[in-house]
Structures are given as C-alpha cells and as structure tokens.
Amino acid sequence: MPWTEIAFLCLALLAGGVVTGLLAGMFGVGGGGVMVPVLYEVFRAVGVEESLRMQLCIGTSLAVIIPTSYMSYRAHAARGAVLPGVLKTWRLPAIAGMLTGTAIAAVVDGWVLKAIFVGLVGALGLKSVMGRNDIRIAHTLPGKAALRAIGYVLGLAASLVGISGGGVATNILLLYGVPIHAAVATSAGIGMIIPIPGVIGYAVAGWPHLADLPPLSLGYVSVIGFVCMAPLSMVFAPMGARIAHRLPHRKLEIGIGLFFLAIAARFFLSLVWG
C-alpha cells in the first residue's frame, strides 16, 4: 500500500474516531453504527475485496468499541444512571450470543451481513423517530430468564453487524418503561462486554485471508484502524455523555433515530447499486 493511501486511511480513521466517541457517549451505541460505514468507505478506497470488506469492518469496529464503551459507561455511571442488575444478568448470555454470531459471520458472504445491518439498524431508527412512547411490552423489566434471552439476542445481533448491542439494548429497555437516560447508560455498559469474544473470533476467522487484507491486519481486525480510532473515541465519549444528559428526552430519541436511519440508507443503497 503506497504511503499516500496509508496517510488517507489514517486521516479518515482519525476523523471517524472523533465522531464515534461523541455518538457513543450520546446514544450509548458504542459507535459501531458510525465505524462500520466509515471503515467500509476507507477499505473500499484502498482496494480491499468486496467479499472480505464487511467482515474487516465489523471486526475492527468491535475492537474499537471496547475502550469507547468503557469510557462512555464510566461517564454515565458517574451520574448514577446505570442499571447494574441488568448488566449482571445480560453478561454471560450476551457473550454466548456473540460467539454464535461470530461463527455464522465467518462462513456467510459479506452482502448477507450488510443486509442484516440494514434491517436491524433501520428498524431501530424508525422506532426512535416515530417516538411511540406509548408502545410498551410491560411497565417493569421481566424476570431473569427473559433477561438472559434478551442478552443472548444482543450478543448475536452485535456480532453480525459490528455494533456493541447498545442501540438494540436501548430500544428493548425503552419497551419495558426504562427512562431513556438510564437505557442509554445501561446500553453503554453492555457495550464494553459484548465485543471482546467477537474480536477474538473475527481475528481467527480472517487469518486464512491475510494476503488479501491491508497491512497490519490481525485476521479481520485492522490494527491501523484500532490505533487511529480508539484513542480519539475514548477521549470524546465522555463529552458525548455530557451532551446526552443535557438533552431533553424527545430530542435525544430523535437524534438516535435519525442517526440509525442515515446509516441504514447508505448501506441499503450499496446493496442495490454496489
């Protein structure tokens, strides 16, 4: 890879790190919804094969999400907004779901992962923008068995689309009547746990394709991507959390929805026109 392309790669990733950190703190989403499309465009520009590009984006995104979500979680926890009992119940099932999804992602084509990304992120965006706060599954959280099942789904979804599960978790908690700031804070907490086994899985799955991946790739995890994005996203995540706690409920909800819809639209267009 020429030095000019490496410089372009690094600059794009640095900018993505700033945006990732801000949105991770504001929305409790871990930043994967930002990183995956940013990485997709960058890796396309430097010539990564279409068949490997989405996997590389997801693996790298999951790696950056870990420290970003940790910083976001700390900022929210300092305000007492996290539901610790929910995090404890979700932890192990979410890891199991992540391992399942990683195994699936290793054998499917990139367009399948892209389609799943569009469907999931688009649904989350529509739900938030519509603002149907009267839609509730219940007014209290379910028992531990149901929470464990939800945790598994969070891990599975996160592994297939390269997000931390935070966006899914936020919307699920809202359906059970959890206030949005507490939902965002708790989602940030699960976002620092879910990606760990996913990163390991994507690194192993991509090892046979090293010859076709950019320099300094550990399987489907780009070290350049991690080094450029993680530090800035960690710095800006607490700033995003402070912004979130200053926003009214509805404005925060609309912001989350528009963010997801924009990302889903971009990937839908790439599915249609390539």
Automatic annotation (TrEMBL):
InterPro entries for the chain: TM_pro_TauE-like (IPR002781)
Primary localisation category: membrane
Subcellular location: Cell membrane; Membrane
Official protein name in the record: Probable membrane transporter protein
Pfam families per UniProt: TauE
Membrane topology field: Multi-pass membrane protein
Lineage start: Bacteria, Pseudomonadati, Pseudomonadota, Alphaproteobacteria, Hyphomicrobiales
Taxonomic source organism: Xanthobacter tagetidis
Keywords: Cell membrane, Membrane, Transmembrane, Transmembrane helix
Transmembrane feature ranges: 7-40, 94-124, 149-176, 183-205, 217-240, 252-273
GO CC terms in record: plasma membrane
Family (UniProt): Belongs to the 4-toluene sulfonate uptake permease (TSUP) (TC 2.A.102) family.
Source superkingdom: Bacteria
